From TrEMBL:
Substrate binds at H111. The active site is at Y52. InterPro entries: AKR, NAD(P)_OxRdtase_dom_sf, NADP_OxRdtase_dom. This is Aldo keto reductase family oxidoreductase. The record marks K78 as: Lowers pKa of active site Tyr. CDD domains: AKR_YeaE. It comes from Ligilactobacillus pobuzihii. Residues 13-269 form the NADP-dependent oxidoreductase domain. One of its GO terms (molecular function) is oxidoreductase activity. It comes from the Bacteria. PANTHER family: ALDEHYDE REDUCTASE, OXIDOREDUCTASE, ALDO/KETO REDUCTASE FAMILY PROTEIN.
Amino acid sequence: MKTVTISGHALPAIGIGTWHMGDDPAKEEQEINAIRAGLDAGAKVVDTAEMYGSGNSETLVGKALQPYDRERVFLISKVLPSNASKAKMEEHLDASLQRLQTDYLDLYLYHWRGGTPLSETISELDRLKETGKIRAWGVSNFDVADLEELWQLPAGPNAAANEDLYNIETRGIEYDLTDWQAQHDLPLIAYSPVGGLHNELGTTMLDNAVVKQIAATHNVSAHAVLLAWTIRNGNTIAIPQSSQVSHVEANVKATELELSSDELNKLDQEYPSPTHKVPLAIN
């Protein structure tokens, strides 16, 4: 099983994303069962945010985690840019903790850059770490220039991870960001690793003939192949979202799938790596 170390924790490289979950009361039991199935299959990372359903996702996750030893789960949430100031952040963190029914987060991410000076946001994140309400902090939707600016701040190199959109069809960050993060020992958390919900990214990768052929060779799903590709470098945790128990279980098993160099080359031919800088993909 592939693992990635974040803030001293060796974590399975496939976690559980919860974007778009928690909004429909009729689906609550199914979604709770899916999160629990992922944990039971060996996942540890559960990723949510105050933005997701205006807190509904955090509430759902809080319910799902109740039967589990809190120390067994690596829980991530995120603060909105509008709340990432010294005046507001702790209040919003406390609200997230209440919805999640816990007294700490393993990782608290600055969801994306907003109007608050970066120095103020990072100073407050670092202060909240000292309170024990968060055990580590990081950033999300940051590109190389953002990270270089972050690293110039006194507490900047304390960042534990950066979460960006990344999948085989959206490889722009490979031009410079993935190398930068590897050189600075900053793990990547990949969201939308198999595209967005309801194909909102217009993806073709699940239907690609080469992806399907490789999946058939290994007797796994196309999702599993795409996830194994996303985590192939050993510095990336992927957080696919699914409300289906069987899908979540299959996703977690993708940590054990090794793609051969020949298979990786075939996938590169289908979805080439970038040859120039492109704007950071955000969804």
